[in-house]
Amino acid sequence: MSIAFLIVLICISVFIISIYKYRNLYNPLTIFSGIWMIIFVLYIENPSDLPEVKDGTLLLFLIGIVGYFLGSFFVKHGGRTNTTVVYIDNFPNKQLIFLMQLFGTLVSIYLGSFGLAAVLAGQDLTFIRYTLRLITLENSINAILLTYVSVPIMYFSITYTCAQLAAKNYSRLVKWSAVLSLIMMIMELLTTGGRMGMFYAITCSFIAFFENRKQSISKGKKVSILPIVLIVALGVGMMFMMAQSRSGDGVDSITVYLYGPISCFDIDKELFDQPSFYHTYGFLTLQGFVSPFSKLLMFSETATWKNLDKVSALIDDVVDLNGRDFNSEVTMFGYFYFDGGLFCVFLFSFICKKSVPAHL
């Protein structure tokens, strides 16, 4: 527990320093330190009675968090550049983007139709998350459509739409992009039972709005904060209702969602440290990029890729957190550890911060 207290102390210190230095709440260093401060305060208080984590696992979190913070000292702080707000006219073919979004929406509707049928038959999101989602992934075609088509296009569409709306671009194509993004989020919910699409939309809206607001204020323009407050309130309310439908207790569900990954990683790590597994040498972290090439180049049957599939299945499997089903969330430090142990936890965390522009 002393390691957890040390992590909280470090995160509080870095949070205060980053607020003082960057004068905003959406800088990566501020967000990162603030999130992990909340997570480990919850872990220490343990309001949901989750399993206690071994000191060796907590040490990995400490090393990863410190590695990320140290990486910030090696980022060159140049002048501020306008890189966050991306206007639609900057894209070479906006019609092509719309067609891609439309294709992603059609695929999402196809995948989500199974979940919609289950809901209409009286099933809830828990059934979709822990039963129907696994059935979908067992179908190789549906798994490819979900992993490499609908979900990536959804995330791109959300980012693209939030940037345009924050920049007050209300063209017809942007309005349609917003509609398609909403449909894809709903269908992703019905396909996986997860809330990541909604969470990502809230985060993107928040960052895009405040980035554009700061630029507008620097030009002497007044910007109302009411729209983003309404968007965030609506998003948080919808996430709470989804959590309520899955567990019957929305507050407890969201609390477990925040600090449960610590216990989840500890359980998966104990299984991983057995002789039947070995490290994935960076392929787990980059799996979304390398898996398509491995299948095309016939590498998927090699020992390295079979081990990668085993580790992926381990992470995706459901673990029991004192009577609660939980899966897939081992934090980025978990992925780094499975890739290369303690050394990779520090190295990849350091690289993560070094690769993020400090002026965002």
Summarize the structure.
This protein is mostly helical. 73% of the residues lie in helices and 1% in strands.
Radius of gyration from the alpha-carbon trace, in angstroms: 21 Å
Summarize the biggest pleated sheet: 2 strands, antiparallel
Mean pLDDT: 80
Strand residues, percent? under 5%
What overall form do the CA principal axes indicate?
globular
Q: Roughly what percent helix?
A: over 70%
Low-confidence stretches: 78-88
Taking the alpha carbons of the first and last residues, their distance comes to: 34 Å
Number of helices: 13
The secondary-structure class comes to mainly alpha
Q: How many beta strands in the DSSP annotation?
A: 2
Polypeptide structure, described:
The structure is a single chain. The protein is mainly alpha-helical and 360 residues long. The chain is 73% helix and 1% strand. The protein is built from 13 helices and two strands, in the order ααααααααααααββα. The protein has helices at 2-22, 28-45, 55-72, 94-120, 125-138, 140-166, 172-192, 196-218, 226-247, 250-272, 287-296, 303-316, 331-355, and strands at 319-320, 325-326. The chain has a two-stranded antiparallel sheet. Strand 1 (319-320) and strand 2 form a beta hairpin. Helix 9 packs across helix 10. The longest helix is centred in the first third of the chain and has 27 residues, at 94-120. The protein is globular. It starts with a helix and ends in a 5-residue tail after the last helix. The model is unreliable at 78-88 (pLDDT under 50).
